[in-house]
Amino acid sequence: MIHNRSALAVSPDHEVALDCIEAAIDAAAPETATRAAVDLSGQTLTIGETTYDLGEYTEVVLVGGGKATGGVTRALESVLGESLSGGQVVVKQPVDTATVESAVGDHPLPSARNVEATAAMLDIVDEADEETLVLFALTGGASALLSAPAGDLTLEDLQTTTDRLLDGGVPIDEINAVRKHLSAVKGGQLARRAAPATVAGLLLSDVVGNDLSTIGSGPSVPDETTYGDALAVLDRHGIDPPAAVREHLEAGDAGELSETPSPGDPVFDRVTNHLVGDNATALDAAAAVARERGYEPLVLTSRLRGEAREVAKPLVAVAEEAAATGTPVDPPAVLLAGGETTVTVTGDGGRGGPNQELVLSGALEHGGSAVVAAVDTDGEDGSSDVAGAIADVTTVSERERAREALLANDAGSYLSAAGATIETGPTGTNVNDVVVLVVPDVDE
Fold first, then answer.
1. What positions does the domain MOFRL-associated occupy (predicted)?
2. CA distance 177 to 335
3. What is the 3-state secondary structure (H, E, C) of 83-126?
4. What is the pLDDT of residues 278-296, one digit of tens each?
5. Which of 207, 256, 320, 369 sits between 20 and 30 A of 87, alpha carbons compared?
6. Is the dihedral of CA 319, 322, 327, 332 positive or negative?
7. Cα–chain-centroid distance for residue 171?
8. What residues contact residue 413 under an 8 Å CB cut-off, 6+ apart?
């Protein structure tokens, strides 16, 4: 899975860190997670704890989007066979599908082909009636891949706003509050368009805390945010959107546009959403591998968030405490964390992403011999083409240059030159970031 593993596995501690990363990504594979959650026995389809009698429907269609939706689609096609009528999904990487049409879109910024593919998906949703079962597969990346500009907004309006939100280090839940109110599909609006059909959402979480309304901006989930909330996000973070975007949000806040459907709206009467995989799935698998390798694992959190370079500091502090006192875990140990950190871009033209910033900051801050590794489980750290990085104190021997790179948001360039970046290519899954800190035995 890790293409350059042999170059990175320079010690037993590096090896176990890489083992944990591979196990985490593998466990969160969408086909694995979907098959564990879905079963078909005769005409009875079971998803989680909910059953659907396929005999009650004239059509079963599959729609959706996201980086990992290809794997969900393949699993559902395999389970349902001829019971599946067809459908349309929007993915980032090409995927071979048998019954469902798959269209490749762009991420993290929406594109014209995203809009075209989403329109084709919505045509299927709009045609659904009370005798249709709509399977809605949603995974990380769908907020960009499922693009349907609301009202008179243009694709360029969405692109510019998304770009400025990402560069501003805005947390994902706040980014999505804005996206929902610039879209004709997000924030429960897919459910509104599908009614009165039955909708079964299959969600693979890429958000901290698994808030279903935040995953992919919640197309099938009630929205508790408002146009006013979206405006507040822009103002709080000093984001200056295109004039048309602010005018649209202000019109909505003034009651001139329909709000997104909120909890209790009857459009959700026949909608059930099922969480089929998340970051905890990945961390549990990593912990199991660490234990097999003779290291005591400790999962610190699956809700990591904040500025990546700052988040690194308390993590390495825990590693140092473990090495010094055996608290909260006795070495040799593996500390695990997951979530979604952010980067506020202040440099110009730097390379990298939040996981690379976390690793470089951690290696600079650390005063011991722990190994620090972090990856985005989708294989792409931020807008870079690597998954993340792995480092220890020897990686930052040129400390002044490393500090300058971190300050310039250029952690990727430094870590790449040091041979410390982790290369997986697109993994086909997306359940947030995974951070691994390997604390060696103090007696070795």
1. 17-250
2. 33
3. HCCEEEEEECCCCCCCCCEEEECCCCCCCHHHHHHHHHHHHHHH
4. 999 999 999 999 999 999 9
5. 207
6. positive
7. 13
8. 350, 351, 352, 405
Per-residue pLDDT reduced to its tens digit, 11-29: 999 999 999 999 999 988 9
3-state SS assignment for residue 267: helix
Residues 357, 341: Cα–Cα separation, whole Å:
10
Burial class of residue 225, CB neighbours in 10 A (0-12, 13-18, 19+): buried
Give the up-direction half-sphere exposure of residue 185: CA atoms within 13 A in the CB hemisphere.
26
CA proximity to 341, closest of 140, 207, 225: 207
Say whether pLDDT at 367 is over 90.
no
- Tell me the residue type at 38: V
d(CA 416, CA 413) in angstroms, rounded, equals 5
427, 381 contact by CB (below 8 A): no
Of all helices (H) and strands (E), which one includes residue 439?
Answer: strand 433-439
- Would you state the torsion angle of the CA atoms of residues 112, 116, 122, 124, taken in this order, to the nearest 10 degrees? -160
Q: Is the dihedral of CA 229, 188, 139, 246 positive or negative?
A: negative
Is residue 98 within 8 Å of 160, Cβ to Cβ? no
CATH superfamily, domain 5-26+282-439, is: MOFRL domain (3.40.1480.10)
Domain-wise residue ranges, the chain: 5-26+282-439, 29-148+183-225+260-277
pLDDT digits (tens, 9 = 90+) for 319-340: 999 999 999 999 999 999 999 9
How do beta strands 198-204 and 271-277 pair? parallel
Query: Looking up tokens 């980014």, which residue turns up?
Result: 175
Helix (H) or strand (E) holding 246: helix 243-253
Query: Beta strands 59-65 and 132-138: pairing type?
Result: parallel
Q: Would you mind telling me the total number of residues written for the chain in this entry?
A: 444
Is the torsion defined by CA of 416, 421, 424, 428 positive or negative?
negative
Distance between CA atoms of residues 372 and 393, nearest Å? 9
